Every structure is written in C-alpha cells, then in structure tokens.
What we know:
The protein is an alpha/beta fold. Helix content is 36%, strand content 19%. The protein has helices at residues 34-42, 62-68, 84-92, 114-125, 153-162, 192-201, 229-242, 249-284, and strands at residues 21-27, 49-55, 75-78, 99-104, 108-109, 131-139, 145-149, 172-175, 207-218. Strands 1, 2, 3, 4, 5, 6, 7, 8 and 9 form a 9-stranded mixed beta sheet that branches. Helix 1 (34-42) links the parallel strand 1 and strand 2 (49-55). Helix 6 packs parallel to helix 7 (229-242) and helix 7 (229-242) crosses helix 8. The longest helix is centred in the C-terminal third of the chain and has 36 residues, at 249-284. The model is unreliable at 10-16 and 285-295 (pLDDT under 50).
Amino acid sequence: MKPKGMIDGTPDEIIRRNPLISVIVAVFNAVATLQRCIDSFSDQTYPDKELIIIDGGSNDGSLNVLEANANRITYWESKPDRGIYHAWNKGLAHTRGEWLYFMGADDYFWSSDVLDRMAPHLTAAYPPLAVVYGRRALVNDKGQTLSLWGQNWARIRQEFLQHQMTIPHQCLFHHRSLFLNGGFDETFRITGDYELLLRYLKWGEARFVENLIVAGMRVGGLSTTRTNLITMVRENIRAQKKNRIPVSVLHQGWAFAKIVARLGLLQVAGERGTARLTSIWHKLIQKPRGQRCFL
Length: 295
C-alpha cells in the first residue's frame, strides 16, 4: 500500500480530453503584482482551469485584491504560513486538476493562450510522462525581457542531476501523480521545487514544448537575489544527497564557482547587464543557454 500523499490521486471524472489544470499561487505582501498575476490567469482562453491562492497573512493590501477578485478564484485563504512550499502544500489540498502549475505572485502567464497551447501536450504526455515544460522569460520591473530560458530535456538532464534546477517552476506543469507520496519538502527554503522533481526525474523523463513561453518571472525573486545564491547551491547539494544522486566534489566545486562568478557580475553589471553578458558568453562557447542556467 502506498503511503498517503498530499492529495488523493486523480479522480476518474477529471481525466478528460481537455484536462483540468489547477494553478496554485503563493502570496505574501505582493500588492504591487498580485492583480497582474490574477488577470493573467483569468485572461486564459482555456476553459478547464481553476485558481487556488494561498496568502501568508499579508498586511500590505494584498487581502483587498483577493477580496475584490473572489469571484475569479476557486479557493483562497489568508493565514500565516511557513513559506512558499508550505503555501503550495496547503494549496494542493484544494485542487481537483489532473495537472498542477505553481506560481508566485510576481509571476504571470506570458499570453492569454498559454494553457490552450499547452493542454494538448499535457494530454499526450501522460502516461508515461508526468513533467511537461516550456520556456520562461526573465523580465525587469519595466516588463522588459532580459533573457529566455528553455532547452530540451536530453540536453539539460545531466546538469539537472549534478548541478541545479534547470526547469524553473514558472515554465513547468506537474501531473497529479507526482504528489501521491508527498508534497514539497518544507525544510528547503529556496529549492524545494528542485528536490521534488529530483524524486521523479532521477529516473524519469520530461517533455519540452519548444515554442511556448509559459510565464514571465520578475528579476529579484527568492532565488535570484545576491544573498540567497549561496544558500541555493547548498540546498541543491542537500537535495541531491537526500535523493541519493552521486555528485562529485568537482561538480560541487563547479557549482560554487559559477555562483561566485555570478555574484561578481551582479556587483559590477547589475541584473540586466549580467543577463546580457551571460547570453553573450553562451553564444561564444556555442553551448545552449539552457545547459548553463544560472538563475
């Protein structure tokens, strides 16, 4: 008998040609961006969708935004939580979808047809594939695109296993079956999404939808700030050890060396300049950008 997970599986009634997609948003003091996030969901032309929002007890006006949009949200609550992975775990309990998508309040769907274009790929993927992803755009506060991420799984698999998260959650759809034996490990502050995927992708496969930008991510998120980059690498190594992924000292040293280099670039060039310089470097060495994702 399987141990009880965060959710009870995929009800027969939601396995359909057009799968129900559950979008779970974690919020804390995000009044400046929350409305854009909600609008990007509501504007989706795909009909079989639901929105779950878990607010961590915001005191900046985010609650007013949630109340004003209550008729557009399937379920929402505002209570203190222990961070983004606790919020997402709480949201899981209120989902009915066959496929699950996780956002932060700073994230937003790139265009109104994202779910419409993604749905056929989800239907075709499962079974056997439980992970499907597209591209993610990194944007600044003015909405200008700094860089695009996205690469075929065959190209990034090795780096994913030995270095870091090469499939950011903003471009990733999870099949419900991934959560039957548990949700996000809340002991991870930054890379709980990476640890969750390691459980499946250490032996599984993923489908890449090449021509679809799924979402925009604003510069300055939890895993892109200067102070959190070292923590991110350390948590990545802990996630690999937890899932018994063999990683050499050389690979660990390379991961830290990349972070040191990025910290230096951030200090000199800032986020926008760093994104441009990184893009130029990738072209010079003729290696696909997705294989060297620093963010």
